[in-house]
Amino acid sequence: MRLGLFGGSFDPVHYGHLLLAECCREQCRLDWVVFLPAANPPHKKGETLSPAEHREAMLRLAIADYELFEVSTYEIDRGGTSYTVDTLRHFRQTLPPHVDLFLLLGADMLADLPNWREAGEICRLALPVAVARSDVGEPDFSCLARIASPERIDEIRRQRVTMPAIGTSSTDLRRRAAAGQSLRFQTPRAVEEYIRSHGLYR
After folding, report:
1. Which of 9, 67, 105, 178 could potentially form a cystine with 109 if both were Cys, beta carbons 3.0 to 4.6 Å apart?
2. Domain containing 117 — which CATH number?
3. Domain range for 95
């Protein structure tokens, strides 16, 4: 079994998130993908996130019709700062040993991975999957030299995933919602309606 773990604030989730997950599922032959909304992402300290229950609800609406995606509230339930290494340890300890873990990352996040808490342990517990977009450029795997063996880096390089460029971002959707502008075709209709009905980002 091959399980993809995709963490983030998802504030709000949009089609770029969903396409990244599906490209990884298909190209890495994953059996399913778990979305992990963070409680407090360490790289966003000082920023105010929407309440966790809203971010979780929007994720569940976005993937409701796709049985190969699911949501885990592990990081929200645990609370505090959401460190990836802690989450990976939890999944490694609770899942059967035959389940292989894959950590889904954008190419920009891969470049920052060596700065994460216990980055070497992250690479041991799960195989990072770098997603390359045509508008961002190729992932730089050389940044992993101080946290992973050459053999592990070769494995990571072989799992490189490509996806089409999508210019949608959560930051832009929040800005558009605050200005009363349309979110149509940038996030699933159910998420768009949820944002409107709950007055999020106003």
Report:
1. 105
2. 3.40.50.620
3. 2-168
Letter for the amino acid at 92? R
* CA separation, residue 84 to residues 45, 88, 125, 188 (Å): 15, 6, 10, 27
Residue 36 lies in a domain: yes
The residue behind tokens 């963490």 is 7
Beta bridge pairs of residue 133: 163
Q: Is the peptide bond before 41 cis (omega within 30 degrees of 0)?
A: no
pTM for this model (two decimals): 0.94
pLDDT in tens, the chain (202 residues): 999 999 999 999 999 999 999 999 999 999 999 999 999 877 666 678 999 999 999 999 999 999 999 999 999 999 999 999 999 999 999 999 999 999 999 888 899 999 999 999 999 999 999 998 766 677 889 999 999 999 999 999 999 999 998 889 999 999 999 999 999 999 999 999 999 999 999 9
Which tokens belong to 48?
């105010």
